Amino acid sequence: MELLRALTQPLVLAGLVTWAAVALGLPMEQSGRPALMWSLALAYLVGFVAIDVLPGRWQQRLRMPLLALQAACALALVWLAPRGGTAPVLLVVLVAQLAMALPPRVTVPAVVVLNVALYLLLREAGYTQPLLVTTLYVGFQAFAALTAHYARTAEASRDALAAVNADLLATRALLADSARSNERLRVARELHDVAGHKLTALGLNLRLLEADPALRMRDELRTCRTLAGELLGDLRNLVAAMRHDDGLDLATALHALAAPLPKPSLHLRIDPTARVTDPAVAEAIVRTVQEALTNAARHAGAERLTVALDREGNTLHLRIDDDGRLHGPLREGNGLAGMRERLATLGGRLALSTGDAGALRIDAEIPA
Fold this sequence. Notes:
Keywords: Kinase, Membrane, Transferase, Transmembrane, Transmembrane helix, Two-component regulatory system. By secondary structure, the protein is of the alpha+beta class.
């Protein structure tokens, strides 16, 4: 299902159709090495498809080698069959991929190198106007690159909007939970101060009535006093239950953060004793997990993020692990630095390390 979804994305589908059109034109090429041509075409196809169907961590690691493979195959096909005119179309698809995957400062020099090679191959093949043909394909490439660039920009805007929406949903969940807790506490105080006071006064008045010899033997009076005492006891139990705070609902807020991200999936383990009642502490935990989700998706290519929250005495322990892999040494950027500063304002601390598989591990301690 994941493979089918990847292959039916609009730009991928357009690339597959273009490759099929070039492949249909290969038998008409006047080349003495058809087996080599088909091998190169299939190698190009494998590289094209692999970039979109590989898991996240392998995709980041192999993207550049696969793009280089596609470039080599496309230029080799131009060299083997320069007269047909269809092989350079593969460079148009490649340039679109470069624009989707790389920033312009990398894409533009790569496109220049590709087209210089295309021009030299066409001139070597004896084209009367190799510069005109190269310029024509540069126009197609520019159109494809701009289309891919705007698609990439639209995806980035969509992801940013989804992240902001998730942030708002998580904040709303915490605020709503905090408001419910405050309202419960207010109602408990009102019951204790108003109803409890009046029931106590009622009990005292009933006791005074019992001192009257004319009323002492009335069963109704004893029943009223008993009921008043039981009602006062029930009210105290109710107030105690309402004052009992189970803490803010962190699970709902964290799942709201992870919902817009296709990867990594979020797996929570919150110890029942790790209740968080302070909104500032809850926000620090939510922001820490949010930054970890962003780093795991953007830099590590992780498929799964595990968050564990435990309590030891008056300290909350937060551990975050993912199954991705860091590329290069661990460097503390703005996101991790902001995470450390946020925890430090609450008297907490942050420790960063790498797991056995090379993934980032975050350990935080927060007084609570």
